[in-house]
Amino acid sequence: MKRLLSYMKHYKKESIFGPLFKMLEASFELFVPLVVASMVDRGIGQGDGGYVLRMGGLLVALGLIGLACSLTAQYFAAKAAVGISTALRNDLFAHIGGLSYREIDQVGTATLITRMTSDINQVQNGVNMTLRLLLRSPFVVFGAMVMAFTVDVPAALVFAVTIPILCAVVFGILLVSMPLYKKVQKQLDRVLLTTRENLLGVRVIRAFNRQENEIRTFDQENGALVRLQVFVGKISALLNPVTYVIINLATVALIWKGGLRVDMGALSQGQVIALVNYMSQILVELVKMANLIILISKAMACMNRVDGVFQVTGSIADGVYALDSEAQKVQGTPAVEFQNVSFTFSGSKAPALSELSFKAAPGETIGIIGGTGSGKTALVNLIPRFYEATEGKVMVRGRDVREYEMKSLRRAIGVVPQRAVLFAGTLRDNMRWAKEDASDEEIYRALEIAQAKDFVDEKGEGLDLTIEQGGKNLSGGQRQRLTIARALTGSPEILILDDSASALDFATDARLRKALRHSTEGMTVFIVSQRAASIKQADRILVLDDGKIVGQGTHKELLKNCGLYREICLSQLTREEVERDER
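The chain above was modelled as a monomer; its predicted structure follows.
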């Protein structure tokens, strides 16, 4: 709640004027029953048609003034609510962007999406309705009771009994429903997670003919959400009928009491009508207030969930040294060095990497190979600090990566992840992610090295080629080549290719490796691959098994000295090729 109030400070004027104009509207509304009573007693009772017309004009004027106040209040409330939700969503997005992979893995992508969209929308609605009704409804309820006492004290005692009973009912239901709304939002996370998994894995689902099974799973999760929402809805739905019953009983008591007072001559017919009108106003406002309380309870539950993400602090602290000065380069200093590095994923009992030590010189190409789950991707993710090493040091230019400014460190490193991701826009826009002011010549050079220039030229649009979201209008191999070109556009000192050529045929893969070898002089290149052919020409190869380096050296040395590497090569190459490479 404190966080939300901090955002509302920027909308002080709107937060004051919104409720103020609503209360002005309510004030005019409270005078309506008195005008109607006067119209009945004096105008209709005495047959004064002119007085009736004058009072009718006054009612119209009160209605128009109230409408103007209501529209003004709505404007200020909407401006504050939309502004607060926009700022909150922007800050949440920026905060998530500052989290490391570890925190994102812990919270979960589906949960983050729900909290940035559905939860903040609920907060926006809650702020809007709160500014409009939180002061207005109680003001009308208690104002109507006070006005009723000015009309007739004995008859108004009905109000004094009714309002506490109604408040007890409303707040009692609130205490029951509020915790349940939190459960609804959690179940919504699960539905979103199931939906996201199905959409991302739709090809796998169809390949294994698992549509019916996934439909059943979704039905179970969605059914649980529906049952929970219906249960909460039933509890919340009690508000209206219970409120109406209490108010109608109170109205019957009021008419009975008022009728007796009229017979005694202590009360006029118009005053009874005014009292009934005040009771009707209380009914309408209490129904509004009940719905407002439900909405506020939802908004508070959602704001707590949003605040929970803000409270997740990044485990990676920014350093102070910049990595963009040529003067920092010292002759003979390794470009990258691992010193007894170990790493464990959050929630995992066993380490993903154990006591890794190696050096990579400037301009050297390092191949990394190993079985599935051996820790290849985890290793290269430690260099740009996507994850933080649990033990040991990862050094770049002789300094611990934790001492560098994050921006300068990642500006010096080009990363091509396993999954090729492109963004909607033009090809030029995508290439400039690595370097905002990259010239067309620099982009074309990177495309040529990445073996992407030919197919770009064939499409005939040049760098204005339209890229759809996720690169859906391109093949897998084309996407991979463009992501490699994007990384090369920034001319990084360190290039990481994380199994980024898996969709390329062997001929294109060979041309790509040759171009990288001849066109990236001085650049330290890490090539992670499942293919022995993709890394056999590397200056040095690291063989990983269960998070440990079980062999390092050249292709020829490892064929002789590393049984695991030889086994991998024999599974992919012919025995004649392996024996020829050994010689």
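The CA atoms of residues 344 and 350 lie 7 Å apart.
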